[in-house]
Amino acid sequence: MPIVAQVFYFVIYLILQVVLVQQMVLFDVAFCFLYLGFLLMLPFESGVIRLMLMGLLMGLCVDIFYNSLGIHAAASVFIMYIRPHVVSLISPRGGYEAWMTPKLKIMGFEWFSLYSVILIFLHHLVLFFVEAGGFSNFFYTLLKVLASTAFTYVVIVIIQYLFYSSSRRSL
Amino acid sequence: MNTLFQFLYKYRALALLIVLELVCAWLIVQNNRYQSAAFFNSANTVAASVTQTSNEVSSYLYLKETNESLAEENARLQQELRQMQQQLALPSMRAAIPPEVEQQYTFQAAQVINNSIHNSKNYVTINKGRVDGVEPGMGIIGPSGVVGRIRSASDHYAVAISLLHTNMLVSAVVSSTEAFGSVKWDARSPQQATLDYIARHQSVSVGDSVFTSSYNSVFPPGIPIGIISEVKLPENATYYDIKIDLATDFSSLSYVYVIRNRLVQERDSLESISIN
Q1: Which of A81, A169, B136, B184 is positioned for an S-S bond with B17, CB 3.0–4.6 A?
Q2: How far apart are CA A83 and CA B13, in angstroms?
Q3: Are A67 and B17 a contacting pair at CB < 8 A?
Q4: CATH number of B35-92+101-260
C-alpha cells in the first residue's frame, strides 16, 4: 500500500476522532474510539514491529488531545502486538492469500466482527483500567469497557460499509 | 554472544513491546504530576487551534444556554453590587484598606475550548495563556461555582484540572455549621461529588450549601461548590458520608473566570516559614 495513502488515512481518522467522535458519549458510559479503525485496517503483511510503532504514534497523537499522555499509546501498542496472533488464530479455511486485506467487504462480516471485537475489547480493557488507575470502581469500569466496545464496533462497521470499497488495492 | 543476539532477534517483538510499554508507563506517571509541560497536552498550539476551530462551530449550538447563564450571573452580581454599595455608604464601613488587600483577587474571563466529563481524570482547556497572565496553580470558577485549577499553560492556552478529577481536592465549608471538610470527586456522576472529613459532632443536613473555605490560597472564600444531597452517618464512623450536587454544570461549560490571587506568594512563603 502506498505510504501516502496511509498518512492520509492516519490524518483523517485522527481528525474525526478528536473533532467529532470525542464529543459523542452515550449514557455516560459508551465512548467511541474510532481511531482503532485505522490500526485494524493496516495490511496483513506489515510486520509486528511496524504495527507497534504505528500504534504508538496514533496513541500519542490521540493522547495529546485527551490530556491522557501515555494511556491510549499503551493500549494501542498492546493490541498491535496481539494483532498478528489474533489474525493467525482466526484464519479462514485455506489460510490467507496475498491479495487479502483486513476489510469487511473482503474478509466477510463474521471474520471481521470476530477480529475487531477481540482487539477493540482488549484495547478498551487496558485503556479504561489504566485510566481508572486500578480496580477500585471495578464493575463500573467494566461496564464502560463493554459499552464502549459495542459502540466503537458498531461505528467501525458502519464506516466499513459506507466508505470502503471492495477493491483489493486501496487501504 | 552470538546466541544472545539470536535470542534477542527471535524475541525482538516482545522486547519492543516491553520497551514501548515502559515508555508509556513513564509518560503516564509523568503526566500525573500536578504541574507539567504544556507541550504534550491540549494546551499545545497545534492541538489547541484544532480544538478551538471545532469549538467555534459547536459553541453555536449552546448559545442560548450560555446566554441564559451569563444573564443570571449578571443579575446576581447586580444585586450583590447594590448591597455592597449600601453597606459602604455607612461611614463606619469605609475603613482604610490597602488596595492589594481590597482587590486581592482579580478575575479574567476565558472561553472553554475543550472539556471532558466522562473520564476519571478530566481536564478543561481554555483560550487564555501565559501572555494573558495565566499561570499554573491559579483557580478557575464558572458563572455558578468552582470549576478547577490551572495545571499547565502555553503562550495562548492553558489546561486546568477539572473538579471532576480524582486527584483534585477543594477545601470546603458547610454554610450552616461552619464545619470544614474537603470536596473530592468519586469518578462516578459528573453532577455529584463527596464531602469528606466532616466530623460526627457537627450537625449537617440535606440542603445545606457548601462553599470554598478560607483555608486555601487558590479560591477566594465563599465561592459555591454545591448543595448537600445525601447525608449518612455509619455506626462507629468518625466522619459523615456526604454527597453533594455540584453547583457547576460541567456538561455545558462555556465561559470561566481565571482567578489571580495577588497575595498568594506572601501567604505561601509565610506558611512555609512557619512550617519549617
Answers
A1: A81
A2: 12
A3: no
A4: 2.40.10.340
